[in-house]
Amino acid sequence: MTPRLTLYDRATQRLALYGDGALPLLARFTFAATLLVYFWASARTKIGDGVLGLLRPSTGAYAQIFPRQFEAAGYDASQLGALHWLVTVAGTWAEILLPLLIAAGLFTRLAALGMAGFVAVQSLTDLYGHGGIAHAETLGAWFDRMPDALILDQRLLWLLCLAVLVMKGGGWLSADRLLLRRRATA
């Protein structure tokens, strides 16, 4: 049994060496292939009209981020406070910039951590702000035979992908790696 374990250990050590660079690269690819356009499309619905659209959120932005407060204000954004505006603008910018940073592998750990926080807030808003908590199919359940629930199943996979990036960094072919190489040679 010992020779087999030794052979297995040698094989897995080599995988571990490649995994430190390949796993984060695959996580970034997975994020870009499945979520980058999703978040950018969502951000586009929040950008207001005109040149200053990034600073003047659309009414849809308030409806998505603060659904109950916006409804209580009669769907009039001017009735909401500065904090609502700040959160809406920051959320819109985060939806644009954080996925871009992850895809490029620039400040990957910080961007992935920010994106994980964003996904957590998004999930809570979907559950409590938009009433998803009342629908079992939206919330879902772990350890069941249905892997397609919006919150517990899908968002857990998103967070796993982001956790890999927080812990491992950008991996091979990342801007982080390029910057670290330049700093080492300088």
Automatic annotation (TrEMBL):
Q: Keywords on this record?
A: Membrane, Transmembrane, Transmembrane helix
Q: Which is a Gene Ontology cellular component entry for this protein?
A: membrane
Domain of life, per the record?
Bacteria
Main subcellular location? membrane
Please state the span of the N-terminal signal peptide per the UniProt entry: none
Q: Does the keyword Transcription regulation apply?
A: no
Q: Where found?
A: Membrane
Where are its TM segments located? 22-41, 96-121, 156-175
Q: How does it sit in the membrane?
A: Multi-pass membrane protein
Matching InterPro entries = DoxX
This chain's protein is named Putative oxidoreductase
Q: Which organism is it from?
A: Salipiger abyssi
